[in-house]
């Protein structure tokens, strides 16, 4: 909110509160300590679990952490459903996003009023993990591949959730998921290897803004490991995250994250050790075993008894938890907290619906608009054909709320014109070739097992085939309009409104066989969990029932596939006589990647592409609407397509918002927050988290994208002119004000997002191609010019200097870029001096590397370099070795066979000046110091350590003669 509301506190009752912790006029720290001092050991421990029980003797109610609220309140019943988080970021509109956050927080209060113990006010949102790779299954949950934009949007959303009261929180946002989390496949074991500069300047940089601005009340630890250590026991939780603010933060674990420490990650032998390490690292709240807190509290009590944890450690965590509860007003007299008066009536309020429509419209990105195809005119567009798999449906995602109503694209456009519609999917029949009987389905709303028992074709034998790519289809039965799922006993049942659930059991593959027959393969994501053993193919039982029961295609039932209605032909028929054709295609959020399931490709499914191509040939005025949770690659846009729009799954008002955009009531202003690559081949291995080395994101990608970061067209045109700066030279503590004139040169009012990038032209290190530094959304009438002022702090041009382990502003020339305009400035900072290896240098602070990985020095803290094969190396550049370096000492660990590390100058095959003999040590955490004489090592040199076998190095130092 803007902060314009004036809050008036109700007076305290005449009588004093019975206990100091009940007195709202005392400092919060005093109140927390008073309450903490009244609690027993068991009560203190109970505060460290997601479900905190009531303490009746003190009049304290139950408290639950974690209400999902990524784009509206989720999982608690019908609520206002806004566009996916990715879509909210597409708006580049801080004010709008803050308003969406405010509604989300307000509705969370409404749900809390219904059930305070279960509908908690600690919201697990927003997700600020960077969208480094568009194949990430949770892409729609985040905001951008850029840390500055992510920080700006998350700060706005967090401020909105919290409200604008100076003392009380409307609700408490928690940032997810700390840190470097961007892969779902085997995510518990994924070890994100992130060198220090990328960790500081990229991954941490996304989390810091909202915390520093007090727009977040905590963070959630992520499932993965970072540089060999699980994040749930990373000391950065306490030492880094908490250093960004003076406000208390409550740091929570992800679901079963602490259990993973002893299970999937096997990092600790016992849960007592694991829980103790997590608390010491900064974790305050364990999200384990659903409502059963006993395993967590028992392990913590064991840790106390074993001396792994002190009571001071427990109390420190409990203070963070209680501090948040005080800020939510839980312990204050009635009438004191204004947010406590919010009732369930606010949920899905009319003004919330209007905001949902506005947000859905503002997040639409106009990717292409040849010859001003859009907007459509009401005068010459009386009949619109709306076709495609997503033409007349809206999908919820895993973290979506339940939509109170759904305005589909077809329905939204039907409010503007006469609409004909076709989903453009094939309707088929399947005949069991062994019996000649057709597969048939129940007409009941609740569905029933599919059977191959129908002797002749009938309406109930029709199956609509939806193509979601990678060979995966869903089958909807014509009998009742429900999607086929895997049911009890592995039978196939037509009972799902849409694909859903943690294990998405509506996924199949219809596999053509050499003899022309087909077999049906079950492809639900529980298959990868091995719940099914080897059985995944459909058989037909003696009673005709279809079930999953064969391990190979050869043992599966053979079906004849008969085409009842061609999806392509149906779509073409619908568009032939229309004034315009709108093809709505895209993703299914439960199938095309989601939590615990990465996608393998970003290519548009072939079946959907076929509809686009056919419709374009049949109707020259074709508009493609892509509705998806991630960018698409491929050659679909190189076809002769006049106009392309992209929307995320935008919630209950999607259809009206699209109609607003297509008919010009809303002039599109959305901009891409991710690079759209031309091909999957442009994407590096998704396990490479070092974006500078891998070439991920617009900052380091050197190819030509399909659509670049920040792209988005308008129905009007804008001209940028007279880019100017208020100073050509700025020192490290200063700032530059950048002004640019923006003119609407078209005939429509519109909004543009002015984006300011910088490029450092000289540096000791590799710098990004460019980097976003500021942006401002500006609205202009036709012919209007406004001067937009943006500010760049020189401190924001800093980067992490590995040679001295601090952020540094270099003396260097920079270019400032706005649109096609550039201006140069000079930043007067400092020149990074030559490396001084006489000081003990952590091995992870290399300048370059090949093949090595980063590992944990100990379970508690520290990062070391590890070689996994001969020939791998690290380099330390521009080292001042003086007149003569006598020896090099390294701290090593090596549970494998004895090996050596070569010391070379100038390159990995450069002059050999020493060889370190690395002995075998007891284990990977047993460190020992070894050294080698150096021969002819002098002057300023690039020093390379080249491994001849497996070994670990924690630190190194040079001794001069």
TrEMBL record:
Example GO molecular function: hydrolase activity
Matching SMART domains: CBD_IV (SM00606), Fn3_like (SM01217)
InterPro entries reported in the protein's UniProt record: BXL (IPR044993), CBM6 (IPR005084), Cellulose-bd_IV (IPR006584), Fn3-like (IPR026891), Galactose-bd-like_sf (IPR008979), GH (IPR017853), Glyco_hydro_3_C (IPR002772), Glyco_hydro_3_C_sf (IPR036881)
Domain of life: Bacteria
Keyword set, alphabetical order: Hydrolase, Signal
CDD domains reported in the protein's UniProt record: beta-trefoil_FSCN_BglX-like, CBM6_xylanase-like
Domain CBM6 as annotated: residue spans: 839-959
Annotated PROSITE patterns: CBM6
Similarity comment: Belongs to the glycosyl hydrolase 3 family.
Protein's name in the database: Glycoside hydrolase family 3 C-terminal domain-containing protein
Organism: Saccharothrix hoggarensis
């Amino acid at each position: 909110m803007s902060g314009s509301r004036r809050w008036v506190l109700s007076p305290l009752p005449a009588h004093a509160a019975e206990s100091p912790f009940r007195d709202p006029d005392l400092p919060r720290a005093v109140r927390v300590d008073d309450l903490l001092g009244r609690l027993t050991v068991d009560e203190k421990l109970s505060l460290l679990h997601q479900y905190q029980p009531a303490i009746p003797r003190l009049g304290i109610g139950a408290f639950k952490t974690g209400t999902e609220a990524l784009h509206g309140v989720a999982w608690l019943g019908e609520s206002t459903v806004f566009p996916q988080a990715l879509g909210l970021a597409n708006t580049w509109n801080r004010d709008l996003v803050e308003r969406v956050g405010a509604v989300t927080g307000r509705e969370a209060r409404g749900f809390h009023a219904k059930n305070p113990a279960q509908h908690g006010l600690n919201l697990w949102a927003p997700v600020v993990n960077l969208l480094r790779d568009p194949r990430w299954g949770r892409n729609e949950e985040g905001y951008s591949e850029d840390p500055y934009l992510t920080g700006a949007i998350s700060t706005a959303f967090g401020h909105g959730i919290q409200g604008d009261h100076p003392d009380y929180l409307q609700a408490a946002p928690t940032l997810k998921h700390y840190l470097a989390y961007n892969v779902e496949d085997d995510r518990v074991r994924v070890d994100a290897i992130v060198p220090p500069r990328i960790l500081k300047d990229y991954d941490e940089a996304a989390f810091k803004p909202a915390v520093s601005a007090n727009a977040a009340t905590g963070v959630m630890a992520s499932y993965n490991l970072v540089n060999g250590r699980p994040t749930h026991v990373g000391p950065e939780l306490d030492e880094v995250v908490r250093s960004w603010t003076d406000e208390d933060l409550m740091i929570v674990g992800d679901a079963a994250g602490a259990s993973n420490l002893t299970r999937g990650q096997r990092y600790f032998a016992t849960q007592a050790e694991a829980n103790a390490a997590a608390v010491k690292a900064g974790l305050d709240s364990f999200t384990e075993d659903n409502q059963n807190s006993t395993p967590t509290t028992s392990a913590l009590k064991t840790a106390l008894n074993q001396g792994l944890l002190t009571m001071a450690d427990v109390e420190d965590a409990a203070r963070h938890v209680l501090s948040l509860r005080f800020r939510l007003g839980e312990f204050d007299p009635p009438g004191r907290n204004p947010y406590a008066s919010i009732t369930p009536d606010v949920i899905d309020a009319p003004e919330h619906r209007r905001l949902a429509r506005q947000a859905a419209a503002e997040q639409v990105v106009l990717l292409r608009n040849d010859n001003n195809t859009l907007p459509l005119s009401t005068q010459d567009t009386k009949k619109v054909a709306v076709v495609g798999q997503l033409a007349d449906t809206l999908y919820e995602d895993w973290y979506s709320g339940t939509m109170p109503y759904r305005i589909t694209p077809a329905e939204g456009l039907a409010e503007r014109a006469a609409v004909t519609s076709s989903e453009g999917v094939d309707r088929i029949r399947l005949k069991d070739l062994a019996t000649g009987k057709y597969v048939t389905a129940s007409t009941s709303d609740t569905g029933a097992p599919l059977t191959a028992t129908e002797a002749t074709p009938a309406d109930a034998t029709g199956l609509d085939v939806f193509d979601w790519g990678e060979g995966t289809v869903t089958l909807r039965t014509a009998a009742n309009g429900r999607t086929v799922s895997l049911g009890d006993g592995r039978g196939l049942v037509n009972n799902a409104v849409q694909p859903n659930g943690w294990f998405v059991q509506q996924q199949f593959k219809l596999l053509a066989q050499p003899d022309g027959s087909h077999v049906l393969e079950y492809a639900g994501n529980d298959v990868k969990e091995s719940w099914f053993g080897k059985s995944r193919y459909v058989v037909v039982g003696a009673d005709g029932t279809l079930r999953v029961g064969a391990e190979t295609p050869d043992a599966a039932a053979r079906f004849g596939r008969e085409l009842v209605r061609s999806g392509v032909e149906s779509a073409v028929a619908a568009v032939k006589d229309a004034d315009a054709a709108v093809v709505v295609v895209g993703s299914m959020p439960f199938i095309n990647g989601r939590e615990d399931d990465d996608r393998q490709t970003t290519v548009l499914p072939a079946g959907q592409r076929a509809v686009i191509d056919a419709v374009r040939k049949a109707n020259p005025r074709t508009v493609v609407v892509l509705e998806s949770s991630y960018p698409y690659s491929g050659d679909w846009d190189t076809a002769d397509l006049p106009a392309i729009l992209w929307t995320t799954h935008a919630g209950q008002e999607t259809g009206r918002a699209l109609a607003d955009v297509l008919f010009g009531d809303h002039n599109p202003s959305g901009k891409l927050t991710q690079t759209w690559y031309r091909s999957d081949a442009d994407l590096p291995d998704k396990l490479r988290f070092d974006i500078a080395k891998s070439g991920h994101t617009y900052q380091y990608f050197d190819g030509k994208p399909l659509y670049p970061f920040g792209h988005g067209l308008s129905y009007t045109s804008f001209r940028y002119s007279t880019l100017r700066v208020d100073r050509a030279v700025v020192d490290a503590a200063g700032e530059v004000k950048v002004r640019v004139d923006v003119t609407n040169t078209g005939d429509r009012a519109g909004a543009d997002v002015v984006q300011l990038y910088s490029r450092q032209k000289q540096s000791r290190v590799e710098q990004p191609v460019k980097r976003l530094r500021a942006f401002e959304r500006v609205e202009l009438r036709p012919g209007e010019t406004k001067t937009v002022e943006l500010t760049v702090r020189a401190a924001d041009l800093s980067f992490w200097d590995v040679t001295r382990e601090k952020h540094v502003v270099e003396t260097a020339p920079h270019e400032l870029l706005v649109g096609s305009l550039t201006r140069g400035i000079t930043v007067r900072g400092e020149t990074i001096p030559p490396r001084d290896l006489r000081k003990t240098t952590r091995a992870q602070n290399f300048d370059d590397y090949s093949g090595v990985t980063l590992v944990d020095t100990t379970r508690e803290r520290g990062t070391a370099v590890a070689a996994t094969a001969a020939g791998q190396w690290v380099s330390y550049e521009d080292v001042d070795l003086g007149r003569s370096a006598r020896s090099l000492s390294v701290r090593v660990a090596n549970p494998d066979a004895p090996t050596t590390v070569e010391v070379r100058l100038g390159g990995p095959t450069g002059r050999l000046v020493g060889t370190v003999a690395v002995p075998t040590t007891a284990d990977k955490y047993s460190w020992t110091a070894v050294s080698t004489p150096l021969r002819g090592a002098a002057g300023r040199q690039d020093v390379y350590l080249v491994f001849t076998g497996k070994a670990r190095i924690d630190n190194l130092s040079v001794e001069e003669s």
